[in-house]
Amino acid sequence: MTQPDAQIADSPQSNSVVQCTHRGLFVVFHEIAPTIFESQIVVHVHDMRAIGVEMEVWVFALTQKDYELSCERAPILAARHGVGIRVFRASRFGLILSDAANTWRLWRALRKASFPPGFIHARTDYSAFICGLVRPFFGFELIWDCRGDTVAEHRLSLSNPSLLRRVLVTLRCMVMRVQRTAVRKLCTRAIFVSDALRSVSVGASSGMPFEIIPCVASSRLFHFSSELRNSVRNKLEIAPGSKVLIYSGSISFFQCFDESVALFRRVLASDPGAVFLIVTPNSEAAHHALDGIPKQNLRVLSATIADVNGFLNAADFGILLRRRDAINRVASPVKFAEYCLAGLPVIMTDAVEQSVQIGRELGNALVTELGSLPEFLAPLSAGDREDLCRRAALRLGREAAEESYRRTYGVSSQKES
């Protein structure tokens, strides 16, 4: 069956009173994944209108299934946030001639675009690489949005691989390093989520203009409210005095879900009334690790981004366990920002250096080792959570990064105007 050039989800007329003087594209070679795509891409594009930046989101889905799912989700997100989203079919990484095919698809889409983009914000190394290959034909500014050490992620993604698989992974990592080297020369500006990631990606001596912007969250969507907390706890049938630990995110090896469950078992051993609240798009898969935990101590559910804040408010502690490895050393988990904006103390390991540093500055980092518990777990009062929420917004709210985004997009600073 012949695929259309793109599925288009047009945005409703924007109600913004700010004149948008900078117009570009936000390009990602990935599917529209639950929650994270909305919170980190669509909400970002919406919020950038406040500083005069207008973007349309172009999604290049890498498989037929991802394309179909993305086409279903795009109109919902476009209507919810007033953001234009186009979905294109692309080829999976690593296939023969896939890079050439994806470059051609992007080139053709840009030729047919309704406006010439002044810039492209390319999320991830691969997106920046493909955008960089077509840049000479269109002359746009290219912003490389580097979210993590993709080479380390690929290298550590398999456990006990076969010899053939190890060879293929090694070859793929070599290709990814070549692409990253090309991106350094093809892009005009970069965003890194941590200084450690910048050092890994371009080296400390690079002269490329860049901004260090941790993964931030919208304070419109994440905040603390005593009324919301009580309402959600009532709906979940959680007693007022019950201690609630929340795990928010996907069920993956990298996010240490099994270790998080083990941590809750230790809490439950000393506090039989504790509740484990698991908010994940993989709610069915979560049950594999929960055998033996009484049902009355569990709440396992999926949620839209609009509902996540209510569940964070209902909790007393967020769980953010990670292993010490090359991936986490340079990482900046968005869940940490969301936990902080909701006024939560965070039970965490010291693997993510940036999050530990910020958590200690805010005073809500409860640092422990995998397999252990913090010495003392005392929920914060409503007043303390409100205070933490306010201070976290100044550090991890999207508005806190406004000046960095202005420099990234070439918008005059408020201080200058």
Helix content: 40-55%
CATH superfamily of the largest domain: Glycogen Phosphorylase B
Number of domains: 2
Structural class designation: alpha/beta
What is the helix tally?
A: 16
Q: How would a crystallographer describe the biggest sheet?
A: 8 strands, mixed
Task: Describe the SSE topology.
Elements: E1 7-9, E2 22-28, H1 36-48, E3 53-61, H2 64-81, E4 85-89, H3 98-111, E5 119-123, H4 125-138, E6 141-146, H5 150-155, H6 163-186, E7 189-192, H7 195-202, E8 210-212, H8 226-235, E9 244-248, H9 257-270, E10 275-279, H10 283-286, E11 298-301, H11 305-314, E12 317-320, H12 326-329, H13 334-341, E13 346-348, H14 353-362, E14 365-367, H15 382-396, H16 402-409
Parallel strand pairs: 2-3, 2-5, 3-4, 5-6, 6-7, 7-8, 9-10, 9-12, 10-11, 12-13, 13-14
Antiparallel strand pairs: 1-4
Helix pairs in contact: 3-4, 4-6, 8-11, 13-15
Please describe what this structure looks like:
With 417 residues, the protein is of the alpha/beta class. It has 16 helices and 14 strands. The strands form two sheets. It has an eight-stranded mixed sheet with strand order 1-4-3-2-5-6-7-8, with helices on both faces. A six-stranded parallel sheet has the order 11-10-9-12-13-14, sandwiched between helices. Helix 9 links the parallel strand 9 and strand 10. The mean pLDDT is 91.
